[in-house]
Amino acid sequence: MPKFPEFAERTKYVQGSVFEKFRPKMQQMGANLVKLHIGDTYLAPTYSIPIDENFIQNNEGFNRYCDTLGIYPLREALSEKVNSDNQLKANPDQLLMTCGATNALNTSVQGLVNPGEDVIVLTPAWPFFKGMVTIAGGNVIEVPLYIRLYREPKLDVLDYLESFCTSKTVALYLNTPNNPSGKVLNSSQLQQIADFAQKHRLWIISDEAYDGMTYDNHNHISVGSLPGMYSQTISIFTFSKVFMFSGLRLGYIVAGESTIKNLNKMMVHQLYSPSTISQQMMVEPVKNRTQWRDAFVKHCHELRDMFITNLKISPQIPEGSYYLFFSIEDHFKGRGYSEVIDECLEKGVSVAPGNDFGKDFPDYIRICFTGENPERLEIAINRLNEIFPV
Amino acid sequence: MPKFPEFAERTKYVQGSVFEKFRPKMQQMGANLVKLHIGDTYLAPTYSIPIDENFIQNNEGFNRYCDTLGIYPLREALSEKVNSDNQLKANPDQLLMTCGATNALNTSVQGLVNPGEDVIVLTPAWPFFKGMVTIAGGNVIEVPLYIRLYREPKLDVLDYLESFCTSKTVALYLNTPNNPSGKVLNSSQLQQIADFAQKHRLWIISDEAYDGMTYDNHNHISVGSLPGMYSQTISIFTFSKVFMFSGLRLGYIVAGESTIKNLNKMMVHQLYSPSTISQQMMVEPVKNRTQWRDAFVKHCHELRDMFITNLKISPQIPEGSYYLFFSIEDHFKGRGYSEVIDECLEKGVSVAPGNDFGKDFPDYIRICFTGENPERLEIAINRLNEIFPV
Question: Rounded CA gap, A126 and A134, in Å?
Fold first, then answer.
């Protein structure tokens, strides 16, 4: 019994920020540390942020509670956006504004997963998703896929997934463009995942946080746009990545109307609604996204290439998102994993540990190639070359 | 099994916004409707909101992820505030910034309550709290208290609570100043609740959303400031009420350091952290709160008195918060409850139904006396007098 001073059991099965354990050493390093451990961009939003006296005057109710689905003008603008950019045929009532993709994912898990049920998590995967399933009482079935698709693009995905499906499986967590591997699934690969979901009547929780952030000839396809998949998919987007505004904590869900209604019930119990003023701030940037988005993605592309060209170690070239994810096993030289991570911190680069992204990646690290300005990134590359020589 | 198109069981046991059911009729009434159903203030914040070009320049990282506990400058300012205003001896690491009090409450329930355990909810109570307990798999034990304390201020609270405690009870939900009854508990009443919690080793989840909003000679006392109660209490505050900024979705928890760490684990899985820029916006208003707060509370006091003086029906005079909560049973005249609520909407005043605040209040309604400007409130009073004549 969690009577005082005990806590609920679920607090024992999940961790807080995966970076928490490195906090003391990171603080010790101070400003010299180039921080590449977190997924963020050094750039402030490149579009105009309309927060001034005029904005306050013109946005009635900016300080007040709003419709728990989100403010209508933003849902209307996003409806146009997902129809046009993602081929998702959503009207404004098929959109639910959330406090970032994190909140959208947790809301989805709470709305879909009963205790004792299984969720397939394609890995490597963003660490908190597994914790969400655990908190809901569900079981995570890790299925390593994204890295393998770099090597085997023609893999029979449908057949491969089959062996992981149990009688208790209710949902599959998909994340393309993928964090941390940078893999962007093509239409054939996505169609097989859709076929698998339809065969077993699984919900797809589609994390599209890196929507629009693809390079070379890769394009992001929303799985919900495939034939018959719209109502079976919960498509999740954010303002934290291509909109460069993680500090706003705003995201949104696209789904069928009854799904939105059920997920909204879960969300209101977590935070009532996302911020009214934050939503009002994003209406114009959504509408004029074509004016600023490509330049930002081009800049990310350049930073990726700067890393790929200058790093001695040769990671798989990411097709999307803004991470490099690679094994450092060859650099252990008799040391343990955590000693190598510690060396990175001591030499002035923070990285995210791979084991948090799935049990199959105990010797990987993730770095974010947009986390600091280009001058600092160059310093980081030099330091990484010292730590990981060829 | 919640395979597509089914949802998780927990979606069936909770409702979304309690006002959802009235939406069609409210829309039908349009701008003529005086909206007193939601707890909000018509006033924009009376302090300066520093969102301008200068603010963006001076707040590095405004667009980026922040420490998941919240930004340090705000936790530092709030630490000073709770020490000085609430006698809570918290340092900045004993504060967790949340997405409103809603998020703070849900985080607390997730962090404390195992499935099958009981939570005592003193009623009438804010409706979503019960849903949070249900979502966590806990059982709600409703204990009607606040209204009774108006009639029986000397009630033996300790003895009264005793009969509701089971071997599975782990926490008690306290909300003073109370929404919806306006009751502000005095030190003797609070001490008895503290004694009860200490006797049974119960956590106290102390919802202090209406901190600072008290009238006449009533003062808000934080139960966590009573001897020995700090570490056993989760004290919850918000920027939605006396700060007049519900649209910012910002709140905070004050608790012991190990409690903060465990609750933070739950919060990061719900939304990672509250908005960085929102937190930066509130540092100065916290620091200069004495310059603007009293005038706002005085204005609420005047609006309360305007209702009390001019309403024909005589509700209990609220000691704090900004609601009137009263029985309309005498006005049924052979009609059902929902017909009377419908009459309110048809005659142009929206109210919140009492049954959502607890099973003992099936014939009550709640109105918020700060929800619209004074001219509109006068119209509402006239309409209410027509609906509820003496």
Answer: 14
Return the CATH fold of A9-44+293-387: Aspartate Aminotransferase, domain 1 (3.90.1150)
Provide the ipTM: 0.96
d(CA B274, CA B381): 38
CA B387/CA B390 separation, integer angstroms? 10
Q: Range(s) for CATH 3.90.1150.10 in chain A?
A: 9-44+293-387
pLDDT band at B71 (very low <50, low <70, confident <90, very high): very high
Rg (CA), chain B: 21
Smallest Cβ–Cβ distance between B270 and the set A15, A51, A106 belongs to A106
Task: Delimit the CATH 3.40.640.10 region(s) of chain A.
Answer: 63-289
Structure tokens at B22: 């009235």
pLDDT at A6: 96
Phi, psi of A335 (to 5 degrees): -90, 165
Q: What is the CATH number of domain B10-44+293-387?
A: 3.90.1150.10
CA neighbor of B21 nearest in space, from B377, B359, B355? B355
Residue percentage of chain A with pLDDT more than 90 = 88
What predicted TM-score, i.e. pTM, was given to this entire model?
0.97
Fold of domain A63-289: Aspartate Aminotransferase; domain 2 (3.40.640)
Whether residue B274 contacts residue B280, with contact meaning beta carbons closer than 8 Å, is answered with: no
Q: Which residues of chain A lie closer than 8 angstroms to B139, CB-CB? A: none
Q: Give the pLDDT score at A336.
A: 85
DSSP for B215-241, please give it: -TT-----GGGSTT-GGGEEEEEESSS
* A320 three-class SS: strand
Comma-separated ranges of CATH 3.90.1150.10 domains in chain B: 10-44+293-387
The DSSP 8-state label assigned to residue A119 in this structure reads: E
Closest partner CB to B11 (pick from A11, A128, A265): A265
- Give, in order, the Cα–Cα distances in Å from A227 to each of A42, A80, A86, A177: 38, 20, 13, 20
What is the tens place of the pLDDT at every residue in B262-297? Answer: 999 999 999 999 999 999 999 999 999 999 999 999
Give B-chain residues touching A259 at CB under 8 angstroms.
7
Token digits for B336? 């059902």
* Residue of A9, A46, A266, A271 to mutate when probing chain B, most B C-beta within 10 A: A271
Residues A166/A141, Cβ–Cβ less than 8 Å: yes
End-to-end CA distance of chain B: 54
CATH tag, B64-289: 3.40.640.10
Contacts of A10 in chain B (CB under 8 A): 110, 114, 266
Tell me which chain B residues have a C-beta less than 8 angstroms from the C-beta of A103.
270-271
Q: State whether B272 and A249 contact (CB < 8 Å).
A: yes
pLDDT in tens, B160-190: 999 999 999 999 999 999 999 999 999 999 9
* Yes or no, beta carbons of A272 and B51 under 8 Å apart: no
Which residues pair with residue A327 across a beta bridge?
Answer: A364
Mean pLDDT of B232-252: 98
* Structure token pair of residue A114: 């009963």
- Asked if B139 contacts B168 with a C-beta cutoff of 8 angstroms, the reply is yes
CATH 3.40.640.10-classified regions of chain B = 64-289
Q: In chain A, which residue's Cα lies nearest the Cα of B43?
A: A63
pLDDT in tens, A130-162: 999 999 999 999 999 999 999 999 999 999 999
| Structure confidence at residue B374 (pLDDT) | 97
Contact B272 A117 (CB under 8 A): no
Exposure of B191 in the CB half-sphere (CA atoms within 13 A): 6
